[in-house]
């Protein structure tokens, strides 16, 4: 049961409600100014800045309020209409997410104005962007599952208009069409799960539903079905295999829209699972689906990334892999690490997409840098051993033992393997001195990882869940162990038999998107603009939209 339920003070409720209202105000202003986009952008910039200020003020209020207020949640009911209660929720999880959303939104608004300078349809773009940010903000601060579901649906619909901003680009329209179909299936799963929760627990308020589910000796079949539907919705929204293709192909949309999608909107599946974690953690089938689908997606996407040269396409596959990893963490019950992953990924991916234009300059700098000596299997294996030692030492400093937290130690093993390029790269570039520096940096990273895990778990007050199944923990270790072996073999022998055999299939993404595209286009063909010498009409078969660069 969630502790320390508090009544939210009026000023905190006003600050929370102000954030989405500011975005709505900017939408109305952009529509009113019409053919004066400069004025619309000015209002959008100020609204985004004030929304960020409101989100920061709300988080400061949590920090000043002390531990009880941080762990919350503090609630305020504004009214109700049947089962839909307009209640606001203020806790550390929502506070961190609201600041994250507002910060990314503020950056994207400023970037978008310069990016779209002189383009047609700017008022419509401003309206779509502001409404998307308003819907995401409402999703974060609401305490009602029905409002959360409706806000998520609204986010998807408003984002669709941004993805189809360039209406003369067939590839952009096809990718948006595929996302639209996948999102509607996810919406049905979400609404079905919310309806089952309401019928079984008699409430759609998040705090009450979590408390009621925690008090049950065992979850009935209907609640287990609800957990599966919520997990399925999160996986579909997070573009997991095999419905991932649209996430890779939305690169034809404006760059700031890609940044908004990859750094913000696609992460909402993780937020949903963290918010209602107790409902999913006690359902083995839901946990297993998240772990299996998430780990397979992470491994496959990481391997496909190795075949890509295009910066933006590689970033898109990276998002697919990171979302799989985040959902896998949720399936293992490591919600605090999932949130840490969500925040770090959002900040990194927003920067990476908005800075993608400097890729040519960065590539030239790499070409002028002397190549590192070739990597050997002994060095690669030694790096893994040293990485294990570094992570074990860092975990011991935080008092983390394998027997008590096997799922966390599975993450520690993955972290150790992830540190190998850092350790080996420093050794190969600068010898013993560089190896010492690399070792110190790796230890600092591991120490910070476990420290942030402890801090998020303590400050966020995420309800404790049962230990993950040993079978799932073993599955994760096997998947990422194989990934490490394959990546190592390809790096050591880039022209070897294994790399030559895997490259064509991995470059095609295992052909999974082609199969999904054919299915969706049979159900609902997309309409695309006419190309020179052709007639406009529905697309009955999938064109070659997969990036070949």
Tell me about this structure.
This protein is mainly alpha-helical and 549 residues long. The protein folds into three domains: 1-143; 163-356 and 513-528; 372-492. The protein is built from 23 helices and five strands. The protein has helices at 10-33, 37-64, 66-71, 92-115, 122-141, 145-163, 170-201, 206-215, 221-237, 245-249, 255-263, 268-275, 277-281, 284-305, 311-331, 335-354, 359-368, 377-397, 406-418, 420-460, 470-492, 497-507, 512-523; strands at 6-7, 74-81, 84-90, 526-528, 537-539. The strands form two sheets. A three-stranded mixed beta sheet has the order 1-2-3. It has a two-stranded antiparallel ribbon with strand order 4-5. Helix 4 packs antiparallel against helix 5 and helix 19 (406-418) runs parallel beside helix 21 (470-492). The chain is globular and about 65 Å long. Residues 1-5, 533-537 and 539-549 have low confidence and may be disordered.
Instruction: Give average pLDDT, whole number.
Output: 82
Counting structural domains, the number is 3
Number of helices: 23
Approximate strand percentage = under 5%
Radius of gyration: 24 Å
**What is the chain-wise order of helices and strands?**
EHHHEEHHHHHHHHHHHHHHHHHHHHEE
Give the overall silhouette: globular
Please mark out the parts with pLDDT under 50 across 5 or more consecutive residues, or reply none: 1-5, 533-537, 539-549
For the termini, the CA-CA separation is: 51 Å
Structural class: mainly alpha
Major sheet: arrangement of strands: 1-2-3
The count of strands amounts to 5
The major pleated sheet works out as: 3 strands, mixed
* Amount of helix: over 70%
């Amino acid at each position: 049961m969630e502790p320390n339920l508090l009544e939210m003070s009026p000023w905190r409720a006003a600050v929370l409600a102000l954030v989405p209202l500011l975005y709505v105000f900017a939408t109305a202003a952009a529509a009113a100014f019409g053919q004066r986009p400069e004025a619309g952008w000015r209002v959008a910039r100020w609204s985004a800045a004030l929304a960020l200020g409101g989100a920061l003020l709300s988080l400061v209020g949590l920090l000043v309020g002390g531990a009880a207020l941080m762990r919350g949640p503090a609630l305020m009911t504004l009214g109700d209409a049947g089962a839909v209660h307009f209640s606001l929720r203020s806790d550390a999880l929502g506070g961190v997410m609201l600041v994250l959303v507002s910060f990314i939104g503020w950056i994207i608004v400023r970037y978008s104005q310069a990016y779209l300078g002189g383009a047609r349809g700017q008022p419509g773009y401003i309206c779509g962007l502001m409404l998307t940010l308003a819907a995401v903000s409402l999703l974060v601060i609401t305490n009602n599952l029905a409002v959360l579901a409706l806000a998520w649906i609204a986010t998807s619909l408003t984002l669709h208009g941004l993805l189809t901003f360039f209406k003369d680009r067939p590839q952009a329209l096809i990718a948006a069409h595929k996302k639209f179909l996948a999102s509607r299936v996810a919406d049905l799963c979400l609404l079905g799960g919310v309806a089952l929760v309401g019928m079984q627990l008699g409430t759609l308020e998040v705090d009450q539903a979590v408390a009621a589910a925690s008090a049950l000796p065992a979850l009935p079949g209907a609640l287990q079905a609800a957990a599966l539907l919520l997990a399925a919705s999160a996986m579909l929204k997070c573009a997991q295999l095999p419905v991932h293709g649209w996430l890779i192909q939305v690169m034809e949309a404006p760059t700031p829209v890609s940044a908004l999608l990859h750094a913000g909107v696609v992460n909402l599946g993780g937020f949903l699972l963290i918010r209602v974690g107790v409902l999913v953690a006690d359902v083995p089938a839901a946990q297993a689906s998240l772990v299996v689908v998430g780990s397979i997606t992470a491994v496959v996407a990481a391997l496909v990334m190795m075949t890509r040269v295009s910066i933006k396409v590689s970033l898109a596959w990276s998002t697919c892999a990171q979302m799989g990893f985040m959902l896998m963490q949720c399936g293992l019950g490591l919600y605090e690490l999932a949130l840490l992953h969500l925040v770090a990924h959002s900040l990194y991916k927003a920067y990476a997409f908005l800075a993608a234009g400097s890729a040519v300059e960065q590539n030239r700098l790499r070409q002028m840098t002397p190549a590192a000596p070739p990597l050997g299997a002994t060095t690669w294996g030694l790096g893994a051993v040293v990485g294990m030692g570094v992570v074990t030492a860092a975990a011991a400093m935080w008092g983390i033992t394998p027997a008590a937290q096997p799922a966390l130690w599975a993450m520690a093993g993955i972290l150790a393997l992830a540190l190998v390029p850092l350790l080996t790269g420093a050794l190969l570039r600068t010898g013993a001195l560089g190896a010492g520096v690399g070792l110190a940096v790796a230890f600092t990273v591991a120490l910070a990882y476990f420290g942030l895990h402890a801090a998020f778990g303590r400050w966020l007050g995420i309800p404790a869940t049962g230990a993950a199944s040993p079978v799932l923990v073993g599955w994760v270790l096997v998947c990422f162990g194989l990934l490490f072996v394959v990546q190592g073999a390809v790096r050591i022998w880039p022209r070897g038999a294994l790399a030559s055999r895997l490259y064509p299939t991995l470059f095609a993404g295992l052909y999974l998107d082609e199969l999904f595209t054919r299915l969706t286009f049979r159900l609902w063909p997309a309409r695309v603009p006419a190309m020179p010498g052709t007639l406009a009409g529905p697309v009955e078969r999938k064109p070659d939209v997969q990036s070949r660069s």
